[in-house]
Amino acid sequence: MGKITFPKDFIWGAATASYQIEGAVNQDGRGESIWDRFSHTPGKVLNGDTGDVACDHYNRYKEDVQLMKELGLKGYRFSVAWPRIYPQGKGQVNQKGLDFYNSLVDELLKAGIEPIVTLYHWDLPQALQDIGGWDNRDVTDYFADYAFKMYDVLGDRVKKWITHNEPWVVAFVGNAFGEHAPGYKDFALAVRITHHLLLSHAKAVQAYRQSGNDDGGQIGITLNLTPVYPDSDSPEDSEAVQFQDGFQNRWFLDPVFKGAYPEDILEFYQEKYNAPVIRPGDMELIADNHIDFLGINYYTRAVVKKGRESGFDSVEHVHPEGKYTEMGWEVYPEGLYDLLMRIHRDYNAPNIYITENGAAFKDDKVVDGIVDDQDRLEYLKSHFEAAYRAIQDGVNLKGYYVWSFMDNFEWAYGYSKRFGIVYVDYETLKRTPKKSALWYRDVIADNGF
Ligand SMILES: OC[C@@H]1[C@@H](O)[C@H](O)[C@@H](O)c2nc(CNc3ccccc3)cn21
User: Fold this and answer.
1) Ligand 1 atom 21: the closest Cα is on which residue?
2) What is annotated as the active site (predicted)?
3) Where are the beta strands (DSSP E) in 187-292?
4) Across the 449 residues of the chain, what is the mean pLDDT of every consecutive 10-residue run?
5) CA 261 to chain centre
6) How far apart are CA 120 and CA 128, in angstroms?
7) Could you give all domains of the chain from N- to C-terminal order, each with its CATH number?
8) Distance set, CA 343 to CA 56, 248, 396 (Å)
9) Of residues 22, 32, 114, 166, which has the active-site annotation?
10) Does the CB atom of residue 169 touch ligand 1 within 6 A?
11) Does ligand 1 come within 6 angstroms of the Cβ of 124?
């Protein structure tokens, strides 16, 4: 592909999340989150790593914003830690928590960087988990109250909001697979939770429209979407694709854009799990609270075939020959093009932002002050090219936030996986831009490459 230039005003950014970078978990009145509890539970996180210190961004945010400015970032996606605002999840507000995010937003605006704020990136106040967490329908109201408070405090300067980051991961990785906080292995629980997450999303969108701060503001949701391909053209493998696509993608896309769950998956869940629990009015609330943009987190594709056991959900993942990241995820930029075209075709999505795309590779070590992460640079370049092709083919893609601005706490993998375009030495907390960051700086300056 020759030189490509992205549309004017395309937002080139980078993304992070509160529990992964802030540290300072006991500072200034922050309450416990489910990830504090999970990471301090022996055996849950590799090497016993926790987010207690992480990148200490809570105390180093001015330095970090200065580095973002030096890289020329146009946008920065971060999340608010609910337990910093409401240490008990509801009730008493923690002013020092509000002060931190007010200062962070002011620093970003002074640096000419547009904030896009995620309200929930997995760090639920533990006090709410103690009353059932997302399985307790009342938590959907506590989430809307928390969202309303953030709109009230930041809404005059923050004009792009994301209600949830990856409800599929929150529900299934945290409550069916047991690999994330709170660590349950109960599929029916996970299905019930998906509905409460979507209900809380709708209530937070409704609160935004009522906040009086939505003038010129946009609100959306971020979904981890994975294009699914069959291992063969057999009818069995096509059925496996249909289930996997429904399980991972359509279960969230359909309610958000069409106001109803996909019939095939809903029927399967009700039959097998007697879930979700949907009350009269729920689907109307979800249907009536439209989003202004869709955030897409794209990392890789899925290739599936029918599994050995019977049933609609009998799916086996196949791992084709090719390049893989340190997470075991296939490098497949074509999947980003196919995904964007599918969302454009099947959901007529309004504005779309890639709210996360990036990779962990082994090539991260500082040699003579340089981290030569050529693998990550090439990963990003190939995915930017796929995004460009989709824009040329009509997709309303308005921005791209690389995951991640800096190396950080990678959930159950702790600090063993590095996704940053900026290297963090966890002994000294020194930040060092990697080769990919210096290349990205030029991409942003030229609005292309
Ligand atoms: O794993 C990299 C990032 C992670 O650091 C972010 O916090 C999170 O938003 C994120 N989502 C994915 C893709 N989805 C996923 C699938 C299974 C387990 C965990 C994440 C990757 N990432």
Assistant:
1) 299
2) 166, 356
3) 218-224, 228-230
4) 93 99 98 98 98 98 98 99 99 98 99 99 99 98 98 98 98 98 98 98 98 92 98 98 98 97 98 98 96 98 97 98 98 98 94 98 86 97 98 98 98 98 97 97 98
5) 21
6) 14
7) 11-446 (3.20.20.80)
8) 37, 14, 10
9) 166
10) yes
11) no
